[in-house]
Specification:
Order of helices and strands: HHHHHHHH
Radius of gyration: 18 Å
Strand content: under 5%
Structural class: mainly alpha
Number of strands: 0
Shape: elongated
Number of helices: 8
Length: 198
């Protein structure tokens, strides 16, 4: 393996370990030593990959959001299914993953937003940018659904997308408290089948 390939491989392992540990324990409770031990990287070498823990946190969020946005874009591009059902499918996929992997810790973005907010500028910038990128796909889907009369038009697609995000994050918190995906399923059904309908 070339030095460049080894560098990329180690960076990838650090990011994967960070996503896992930040999701399980939170940002503040996860030390760099724990991450480095998990990957088998000497402490001094960390700074060959990231300038600081804050830069590492921002990179983790960017990586995580890239994955989420790619999944949303996949469903946005599928014009064979009604837009309102594509929103449902995105979240049924997430629920299925959570149940299959027993990953009841919630969403990394929501967890870090609750923990950090605007406390760390680099991380906050990634949170804000990530949210805007994620929500854009939902706005597009909701506009499509409004255009065909599947979703109410007295509230803007942007406001509905924000409501959806807020409800979903609240359901993820309930999931962590109760150790069950039931709040996710209930919230999804109430929003898409009742509250968002014309």
């Amino acid at each position: 393996m070339s030095d460049l390939a080894k560098h990329k491989d180690t960076r990838r392992k650090l990011l994967d370990a960070g996503i896992e540990l930040f999701s399980e324990q939170g940002y503040a409770a996860t030390g760099l030593k724990q991450i480095l031990n998990k990957v088998g990287v000497p402490k001094g070498s960390f700074y060959n990959y990231f300038d600081s823990k804050e830069a590492f946190g921002a990179a983790i969020l960017d990586e995580y959001v890239d994955f989420l946005v790619a999944r949303v874009k996949f469903y946005v591009s599928d014009e064979t299914t009604p837009a309102i059902e594509r929103i449902r499918l995105i979240h049924l996929e997430i629920i299925e993953f959570v149940e299959a992997s027993n990953a009841l810790n919630g969403c990394l973005v929501g967890r870090m937003a609750a923990e950090i907010g605007h406390g760390l500028s680099g991380v906050s910038k990634s949170l804000t940018g990530g949210f805007e990128r994620w929500i854009a796909g939902y706005v597009q889907l909701l506009e499509e659904a409004q255009a065909v009369g599947d979703v109410r038009r007295d509230v803007s697609a942007k406001d509905l997308a924000d409501i959806f995000w807020n409800q979903w994050q609240g359901s993820l918190l309930q999931m962590r408290i109760y150790g069950s995906t039931r709040p996710l399923k209930t919230g999804l059904s109430i929003l898409l089948d009742q509250m968002f309908r014309p």
